[in-house]
Design goal:
With 282 residues, the chain is mainly beta. It folds into 2 domains: 32 residues, no CATH class; 191 residues, no CATH class. 8% of the residues lie in helices and 41% in strands. The strands form 2 sheets. It has a 10-stranded mixed β-sheet, with no helix packed on it. A 9-stranded mixed β-sheet has the order 5-6-2-8-10-12-18-14-17, with no helix packed on it. A hairpin with a 6-residue loop joins strand 5 and strand 6. The protein is elongated.
């Protein structure tokens, strides 16, 4: 066994320095060049990162404007001229100089009401509620065409114009109240669950032409006004002057008491089939 005298003497201990002759700070990488800029001059985030973040924000803003802003037709979340069309906005046509006009109403709706109480400055006013798209009024002042986009709609026409009205709008309920004006005719070209007409005193023979099916058709006229109804399709029942006739087939005819075909009167033509027809003098 070697003796203690045979063990090598420990040499002097010298601290080891990294290459380059300098003592490194804890965690320093050998060979790295230290950043000698003042602390306030150092950027905590690289410039490239700032550019990438800024570009992403600008791109996001552009996408939001294109998909939700003025280029989009839907009104949300903006409103006004640049925010899309409001489906419930009122459509109007100025009064013009027409003394008589033919109104055509198109587009299916839940309910439709036509009445003669437009403001003096207007020929036609369309007031929708709950529509899917905006209503429009086009054409000349003697032949306006109303296009509807659903919902419950009121169409108001000028009372000082003589009207012929053509309804091509399917609806659960149609009410045409022209008692405050003069009428040249009414054409019912689309089906409805219930149709009600309120008509003025006629000054000639005026035709009410029902061409599409209806659950019920009620015609209200002034007292002592003559009405004759002719059936070319079929009617479940007809009530005139309080008298009801059931099961009217093609060729059947009913009229008010004392009807005079040579006097001004209404001719109601049932061509589309109806569950019940009622004629009332008010």
């Amino acid at each position: 066994m070697p003796s203690d005298s045979d063990r090598p003497e420990p040499g002097p201990q010298h601290p080891q320095h990294p290459q380059g002759g300098r003592a490194g700070a804890p965690g320093a990488v050998a060979g790295a060049v230290p950043d000698r800029r003042p602390a306030g001059a150092r950027s905590p985030v690289p410039l490239r990162t700032w550019l990438l973040v800024g570009g992403a924000l600008v791109l996001g803003a552009l996408v939001l404007v294109v998909t939700q802003g003025p280029l989009r037709s839907a009104p949300w979340p903006w409103s006004g001229p640049l925010g899309g069309t409001d489906a419930d906005s009122t459509a109007t046509m100025a009064r013009g100089g027409a003394d008589s006009a033919r109104l055509v109403v198109t587009g299916d709706v839940a309910t439709l009401t036509v009445r003669a109480d437009a403001p003096r400055a207007d020929l036609v006013v369309v007031e929708p509620a709950g529509a899917d798209r905006a209503a429009t009024v086009d054409g000349p002042d003697d032949a306006p065409v109303v296009s509807l986009g659903g919902g419950a709609v009121v169409v108001r026409v000028a009372a000082d114009v003589r009207w012929e009205v053509e309804v091509r709008s399917g609806a659960s309920r149609v009410t045409v109240d022209l008692a405050a004006t003069e009428v040249d005719g009414v054409l019912l070209a689309s089906g409805a669950d219930a149709i009600e007409l309120r008509l003025p005193d006629p000054d000639r023979q005026v035709v009410v032409d029902q061409r599409a099916g209806a659950g019920s058709l009620v015609v209200r006229v002034p007292e002592h006004t003559g009405v004759r109804a002719g059936v070319t399709s079929g009617a479940g029942s007809a009530t005139v002057d309080g008298e009801t006739t059931d099961g009217l087939g093609a060729g059947a005819e009913v009229s008010t008491v004392g009807f005079d075909p040579d006097a001004p009167h209404y001719e109601v033509r049932i061509g589309g089939g109806v569950g019940s027809l009622t004629v009332e003098q008010r």
